[in-house]
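User:
I study polymers; will you set down one protein's sequence and backbone structure tokens?

Assistant:
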Amino acid sequence: MSNRVALVTGGAQGIGKGIATALGADGFRVAVADLNLAVAEETAKAISAAGGEAIAVEVDVTSTESVQAAVATIQHELGPIEVVVNNAGWDDFMPFVKTTPEFWDKILDVNFKGALRVIHAVVPGMAERGFGRVINIGSDAGRVGSSMEAVYSGAKGGIIAFTKTLAREVAGKGITANTVCPGPTDTPALRKFADGAGGGDAEKVIAGMTRAVPMKRLGTPEDIGPAVAFFASDGAGFVTGQTLSVSGGLTMA
């Protein structure tokens, strides 16, 4: 069991909730940071009700000022941030030629630059204290590509490459940096995007995704949390710069 402080962005629901819940069960004191504060509060209460410790914090990862304010609040209420999980993300399914510069900007601002803002705010403190765990949530789309997700795939590929470089830069300061790449994961957000891509028939799109997975099911948020908890643990202190897919065998590399 750990007593370390962990920040999870996008932690209110979906994969983020699965991660925050797993960390809470392992004894981490969890800051559930999300744009939707009301849902974040529900998740934090559920973690606390299960015997963990958690607080909810509002954050907009597209705003440097919001990120800095959230970090200050967490450090005031829980203490120095020792583990950071960059999970906040956004996507929509469409062919690249139908995307717009505004769409590109939103994808990159949330999925790539959002992680940069958070890391830039917390890593200096980790380096001063000589301990830190950075876990970035990538995607198998960033490893092998994914139709209808070209810009998102590029952003997540950037996260993978950035994490490896960060790992090299901070390895001598007691900080590890790793990436967890979920495969198709059954969340409300995925079903919403699938509904749009399938012309209102989300189940058809979901069924196609499921057929592609060797285990013949989509992932769940509960599948992702334990992988993150491993990278956050003291036992993973000699593991850095790695990319781990949690995809039911969809990606084997």
The longest strand covers residues 175-182. The mean pLDDT is 95. The chain has two domains: 5-183+220-241, 187-218.
